[in-house]
Amino acid sequence: MKQKLYNKLKFFTSKQEFSTIIILLLMLVGMSLLQNGFFTRRVIVSNINAFLPLILLSMGQAIVIVSGGLDMSCGNAMALMLCAMTKIMKADSPYTGVIAILVCILLSLAVGLANGFLVGYLRLPAIIATYATSYIWLGLALFITPTPGGEIVNWFKIFYDFSAVKGCAQWIKTIGSVLAPSVIMILLACTIWFFIGKKKLGRYIYAVGSHDDNAYYSGISTTKVHIKAYVINSLFIMMAALYFAGQNGAGSANIGETLTLQTVAAAVVGGVALSGGKGNVFMAIVGAIIMSLVSKIIYYINVPSAWQSFVSGVIIIIAISASAIYSYAEKRNLLREVN
User: Fold this and answer.
1) Which long-range contacts (CB under 8 A, 24 or more apart) does 122-128 make?
2) Alpha-carbon distance 196 to 214, whole Å?
3) What does residue 304 show for φ and ψ, rounded to 5 degrees?
4) In contact, 92 and 282? CB cutoff 8 Å
5) Residues 300-310: pLDDT tens digits?
6) Domain residue ranges in the chain
């Protein structure tokens, strides 16, 4: 019995995810010392609300990376959807919210198909193709909303806070007192990937990311897999845009610029290999939380603004290095077992 428990513990500690979880726990302990009431429900919900956009975008980014791609346009794509929705909606016309959601769905599909077509069908390098489309999405967002502005209908706040919606049914407010909309969105995102991961498409995404040519010669349509991975990614981007609209009540073309690189870092910190085919998409959530906590820790320890970017970069490098060391150790252990 003890030997079995030891073997299981050894197996878990040898996994790359172990270092990520340790880093998260250390950061949570640090934040609990820096911020009073850090583990109270009010603060937890407030933090989840603040972390949600990065969590959703990081999950989508992780799926694309696992498939062997990369999305350098996710932040600007979210901004485009946000600007389009807040431009369409009129506060005194509730039905415009429905039109805005339909437009957001169409934009989401267009973004996913465009990136997937360039990477999967035309075989352009993912980093170049999506970096180019990021400027297209940014240009369109600036055309729609040159300066921050726009509005939303009242019921659209349901994506952020149930209690903020006038005339909201009591049973919905009751749900909101237990589960915040941000928590529901995370659960929904996890459910979507859980079912996709269990299906043939989930296995194909990992197979194509591991070795595109081998997957192709095995009868897998690698082009379709790449396109589907980007479309799934755009679904998570759309969810983030809906949340942002409900939270801010207005749109800005520049709101997603800083998020794109953070999603890549969050996925890597979560143990997703940039080479593709390896990693747990759910761990991107942990990576996103770590990335978000970095900013909070820097704020609470009163790092001068001139040094904030530097300190943030150092902390992220340490987190990524820890994951890389565990990945290297895991490979060495596998080689020893083979030999």
Assistant:
1) 126/64, 126/68, 126/69, 126/70, 126/71, 127/70, 127/72
2) 22
3) -55, 145
4) no
5) 888 776 676 77
6) 39-257
For the chain, report the end-to-end CA distance as a whole number of angstroms: 28
pLDDT in tens, 230-281: 999 999 999 999 999 999 999 999 998 889 989 998 998 888 888 888 889 9
Closest CA to 88 of 110, 114, 106, 109: 106
- Cα distance between residue 216 and residue 224, in whole Å: 11
Cβ–Cβ under 8 Å, residues 158 and 168 = yes
pLDDT digits (tens, 9 = 90+) for 126-138: 999 999 999 999 9
- Token pair 């290297």 is at which residue? 328
- Work out the number of other CB atoms within 10 angstroms of the CB of residue 70: 23
Cα-based distances in Å from 204 to 85, 112, 169, 220, 221: 34, 18, 43, 7, 9
